[in-house]
Each structure stands twice: as structure tokens, then as C-alpha cells.
Design goal:
By secondary structure, the chain is an alpha+beta fold. It is built from 15 helices and 20 strands. The strands form three sheets. Strands 5, 6, 7, 8, 9, 10, 11, 12, 13, 14, 15, 16, 17 and 18 form a 14-stranded antiparallel sheet that branches. A four-stranded antiparallel sheet has the order 1-2-3-4, with no helix packed on it. It has a two-stranded antiparallel sheet with strand order 19-20.
Length: 619
């Protein structure tokens, strides 16, 4: 053997020794996460003991003899071997259930995988799963020497009890990110805390924020697609604000870039919501949603997304608290959490909302304590409202009757001034007649205007009232959705593919109510168009408009029309005698001394004089 061959064999031996030493070192490093997993997994079943081998900080001891998870060299974009192991760790599921919520968690991203709300069902009588498999994502992002997205890793289940879970993602043997969840025995709120332990060594000194991306495909849960999507949106609340903001209703998609702090973000379906609360506020957020088409094969309603930033507190072991709400949009339930959740129920603006929150809902809740049938409750609510506003109704009718019995006198004034240029003089004398008889031109209008807020409040209340959901009455199976007595084999534009009997009866009652009112109107060519609109157009318009809306709303408007017709008949028969009223007005006009003209009449006189002067100049 020559010298060159000997040197070659020595070099090959040295390389083999170095390779064996290096391979042994990497083998032990990659085996460490397996020991943590094996140790912690002993507590994945209730009743098992916690890992005994822990250091003073509670970190699981690493077994250097553990096997590599992949059986060989891991190929991963992450340099930290524990992250490499977490990347390929199998997915596992654990469920917490308090009788109100059943939340199944996955260790992949340590996040809720499914959320079932007990005691409620979809329109098809299926379990109500607000979050479905593979239809949601929660991702916490931060930077070490590279970007870390928690959704890419399978966390270790560090601790479990009947009401809580603790997941950990180790970066090294002492540094980890921890997600802890606690589901109280009652309610729909899930406590969620994020803990960063010994992570400062991995983070840049300038790190003071971390990102959260939360996405969810809300499912279709109700009968009417249009009604459901029109009352679904993404909402948020500013800290210390009494109101909530939304990205808009009745839109196919919407987006908003919020550059200020937020206290919570809500993904709201018509009657159920998922809300993420930051107890220390989010610093900013980019929010958006997109509506799925009606024929979506997965029966998804809306894709929601929130990309928000949260403050990273200073310290080597810090906790950032959050909360989840998964539950019904029931006003009293939402209000009980004292976080402004109840404002997500679309009850209207300041006046309409005030009427709904502090009058209609209180009366509705009071009646529901004694009566279980919500159709009867709506009937009693309608009677109560009509009784409360009956003084205004009587005053409005009497004012209209006064103007109607004076019509012969008004006709004489019209005959006295047939020319167009005398229109102002004709108006002056008509005003003088009304003043003598004590009639206000607005006497019949103002009482009606006071009733409009109540009508609009009902329009807002019924489609958003959780109490009516899946409550049946007569032929309607769900008062919060449309009723259908006939399904059409085709779709009529704007009207739909069905016939709502409550909407049809409401339109018929509207026709007779309008006809009754039109018979009391004064005659003349200028009133013909108004009568046509009132008697025929409005009932048809409301029939088309309400066919796809809440049957409870159509039922209420039908009852309201019927009671108004009854009120009008009672007032006409027992409260107003038009012959006596006419005699009283004539007597009052004869006995009244000339009164000082009102400012309005003075302006009319001045305008009439100016008009006459212009006519003289033209002649």
C-alpha cells in the first residue's frame, strides 16, 4: 500500500467518524419534541395524571432517547427542530361541552374546529353547527427569524379538564406559545388566553404587535335565503362607544379598513353570531365579507374575514386575554354580557331602536311569560298598541271629518275664483274659513305622523326578533320567515316562487282600509290620482314586498289594518255625527269675531298683493 492510499483511507475514516458524531447529535435534537408529545399525551383522556417529570417552571422534561417522528431527516422551511416536529405532528380532536355549546378543538392551530349550539336546530331540523368542519381558520402570526403562523402547526395538548384545555407550541425546550380555553358551566362565552413564555429571545426587540387572521364561512340556517342574507353582516365596536358599526346590510360583499382600536369583531348571521373579543382591544383591523350564491353546494351563506392586530405586552412571560361568543342573537342574552353585543340586533336608529328596545321588547317579554303562543302574543300586542294610540286616531278622524263637512263651503270659494290667477285669493279665503271654524290644516296629519315610528319599529322588530324563530302559528311554521301555502313551479320577478297567505290577507285588508279612507276624502280631479295610488297600487306593492319577509310582520300589519277599520267604524258611529259637527262649525264661524291674522295668512296677503301689482303692470 502506497502513501497516497494510506492517506485516503485515513481521510475516509475521519469523515465517517465526523458524520456519525453529527448524525447522533441531530438525532437527539429531533427526538426531543417526541418526548414532550409522549409525556403530555398521557393527559389527553379525562382522569389520567399530569406528567410527573417537570422542571420548576412546569416545562416537560425531554427524553433524549425518543425516536424521530418522521423516521429520518425532516424537510421543513423552519430552522427550529421543535417547529419542524410540530409541523408534521398528526391532528387530534378534543371536545368541551357545557350543555349550551359543544366545541370540538383541533390541535392543528389549537383552534375550534366545530361549534354546535344545543337546543336549536336549522330550518331542516338538523343540528345547528355554527362552525363546521374545515369552514373556519384562526391564525396567530408573529416573527422570530422567520414568520410563524400557528395554523401550520399541531400544538401539544399540555393539560385538559372537563371545562378547560391548554395547548402549547414549543419553539425550544423552554420557549412556547400557549393557547388556553375555558368553557364555563353556563352561557355561550368561551374564555381564550394567549401566553408567550420565554419568547423574547426569539423575537425582535422592536416587536410590539402580532397579527390574527380569523376566517369563517357562516352556514345557511334559516328558511328564506334573501331574508337571511339581508340580515347578516360583519360588525365591530370601538372602545368606549355605545354603538356598533357594520359593513352594511343587503350587500353582496363589503370591506372596511379600520385604523383605530376595536374592542370586538362579530360575524353575524340573521339569528346567530360568532364574536371575537379582545379584552385589551385590537389595534386595527381589515374586515370583509362575501355572500355565497343561493345554490352553493355547501349551503354556506357568507364568507367572513378579519385581519386584526393585537398588542404584544412587554415581558418574558405575558398573557393576552380574549373571549369568543358563539350563540343566539337574543337581545336579553346578548345584553347580559355587558359588552354591547345587543347592538348587533338590527332594531333601527335612535328613535326606532329606542321604541323597540324599551317598549316593544319589554311588552313582548312580559306577555311571553304568561302566553306560549306567539301568534296570540302578536294579536295582544297589536290591540295594546291600537289602544295606546287611539286618542291620536280619534283626533285625526275628527279633524278630517271637520274638513270634509266644510267641503260645500270650500266648493263655493272654488266657484267664486275659477281663474288660475285667483288661486292665491282662493287659498286666502279658504284659510280664513278654517280659522273661523277652528280647524287646523295639519290636525289630521300630525296624529298620523306620530304613529309612523311605531309602524317602522314593527318593520324592524319582527324580522330581527329571535323569539319568533321557528315559532309556528296557524299555517305558518316559522313566524320569522315567510309562510307558503302554494309553491310555484316558476319564479316571478320580485315576488318569488311561492304564495304567502299572510301577505295576501294583509294586502286585502290594506285594500279595504284604503277604500274606506278614500271614501272620506274630498272629491276633485286632483284627488283622483291619489285615490288610485292608495286603493290599488299600495296593496299590490305591499303584497309583492312582504311575500318573502317575515310572516309575523305580515300578520301584524293585517291585524293592524283590521283593527283600524274597526276603530274607524266605532268612531264614525259613536264619536262623530257629521250633521251636528257641521252645525257646530257654522255656529262657531258666525259667532267668532275677526281674529288677528296669523303670520302665514299675512304672508299670503302680501304675496297676493304683489301678484296683483304684477298683473296690473303686465296689462
Amino acid at each position: 500500500m502506497n502513501k497516497n492510499s494510506l492517506i485516503g483511507f485515513v481521510l475516509i475514516g475521519a469523515i465517517l467518524i465526523l458524520f456519525a458524531w453529527y448524525n447522533s447529535k441531530k438525532y437527539n435534537e429531533q427526538a426531543a419534541p417526541r418526548q414532550i408529545t409522549d409525556t403530555l399525551s398521557t393527559d389527553t383522556v379525562p382522569g389520567q395524571q399530569q406528567p410527573k417529570e417537570t422542571d420548576t417552571a412546569g416545562t416537560a422534561v425531554i427524553n433524549p432517547d425518543a425516536q424521530n417522528l418522521s423516521g429520518g431527516k425532516l424537510t421543513s422551511p423552519y430552522r427550529d427542530t421543535m417547529l419542524q416536529a410540530a409541523e408534521v405532528k398528526p391532528e387530534e380532536f378534543v371536545t368541551l361541552d357545557n350543555g349550551r355549546l359543544a366545541i370540538t378543538f383541533t390541535n392543528r392551530g389549537a383552534q375550534p374546529r366545530t361549534v354546535k349550539i344545543h337546543n336549536y336546530y336549522t330550518y331542516d331540523s338538523l343540528d345547528l353547527n355554527l362552525i363546521r368542519e374545515n369552514k373556519s381558520s384562526f391564525d396567530l402570526r408573529f416573527f422570530t427569524s422567520q414568520e410563524i403562523s400557528t395554523k401550520n402547526f399541531s400544538f401539544d395538548l399540555f393539560q385538559r379538564s372537563d371545562t378547560s384545555l391548554i395547548y402549547r407550541l414549543y419553539v425550544d425546550s423552554v420557549s412556547f406559545v400557549e393557547f388556553s380555553y375555558t368553557l364555563p358551566a353556563e352561557g355561550y362565552m368561551l374564555d381564550f388566553k394567549v401566553r408567550f413564555s420565554s419568547m423574547k429571545r426569539h423575537l425582535s426587540r422592536s416587536t410590539n404587535m402580532f397579527d390574527i387572521e380569523w376566517m369563517l364561512d357562516l352556514p345557511r340556517l334559516e328558511k328564506g335565503y334573501d331574508n337571511e342574507k339581508n340580515y347578516s353582516s360583519v360588525l365591530f365596536r370601538y372602545p368606549n362607544s355605545n354603538e356598533v358599526e357594520n359593513l352594511g346590510l343587503r350587500k353582496e360583499s363589503s370591506e372596511k379598513d379600520v385604523r383605530t382600536k376595536l374592542s370586538w369583531v362579530a360575524f353575524q348571521q340573521q339569528f346567530f353570531s360568532a364574536i371575537l373579543v379582545a379584552e385589551n382591544n385590537f389595534n386595527s383591523g381589515l374586515l370583509n365579507y362575501n355572500i355565497f350564491p343561493e345554490n352553493d353546494p355547501d349551503r354556506s351563506l357568507m364568507h367572513c374575514k378579519a385581519l386584526v392586530q393585537a398588542q404584544y405586552p412587554d415581558g418574558d412571560d405575558v398573557v393576552v386575554p380574549f373571549k369568543y361568543y358563539f350563540g343566539p342573537n337574543h337581545f336579553k342574552t346578548l345584553k347580559s354580557y355587558d359588552l354591547g353585543f345587543e347592538k348587533i340586533v338590527p332594531l333601527g336608529g335612535w328613535l326606532i331602536g329606542w321604541i323597540n328596545r324599551y317598549v316593544i321588547i319589554l311588552v313582548f317579554d312580559l306577555l311571553s311569560k304568561f302566553i306560549g303562543n306567539y301568534g296570540i302574543i302578536i294579536l295582544l300586542l297589536t290591540i295594546l298598541i291600537k289602544l295606546v294610540i287611539s286618542p291620536l286616531t280619534i283626533k285625526s278622524y275628527i279633524s278630517s271629518a271637520k274638513m270634509r263637512v266644510l267641503k260645500p263651503e270650500v266648493d263655493k270659494i272654488n266657484a267664486k275664483y275659477p281663474k288660475q290667477e285667483d288661486a292665491m285669493k282662493k287659498q286666502q279665503e279658504t284659510m280664513a274659513l278654517y280659522q273661523k271654524t277652528g280647524i287646523s290644516m295639519f290636525g289630521g296629519c300630525l296624529p298620523m305622523l306620530f304613529q309612523f315610528p311605531i309602524l317602522f319599529a314593527m318593520f324592524k322588530f319582527f324580522p330581527a326578533s329571535f323569539e319568533l324563530r321557528q315559532q309556528g302559528f296557524l299555517w305558518a311554521t316559522d313566524l320569522s320567515a315567510y309562510d307558503s301555502v302554494l309553491n310555484l313551479p316558476f319564479t316571478i320577478p320580485l315576488y318569488g316562487d311561492h304564495v304567502s297567505l299572510f301577505a295576501l290577507l294583509m294586502a286585502i285588508s290594506m285594500f279595504f282600509y284604503s277604500k274606506l279612507n278614500a271614501d272620506q276624502m274630498s272629491t276633485g280631479p286632483q284627488m283622483a290620482g291619489m285615490k288610485l295610488m292608495t286603493i290599488y297600487f299600495m296593496p299590490v306593492f305591499l303584497l309583492v314586498f312582504c311575500n318573502n319577509l317575515s310572516s309575523g310582520l305580515s300578520y301584524y300589519y293585517m291585524l293592524s289594518n283590521l283593527f283600524t277599520i274597526l276603530q274607524t267604524w266605532v268612531i264614525r258611529k259613536y264619536f262623530v255625527d257629521e250633521k251636528k259637527l257641521y252645525a257646530q262649525l257654522k255656529e262657531k264661524a258666525a259667532s267668532n269675531a275677526p281674529k288677528k291674522k296669523s303670520k302665514f295668512q299675512e304672508r299670503l296677503d302680501a304675496a297676493y298683493k304683489a301678484q296683483q301689482e304684477q298683473l296690473k303692470k303686465r296689462k
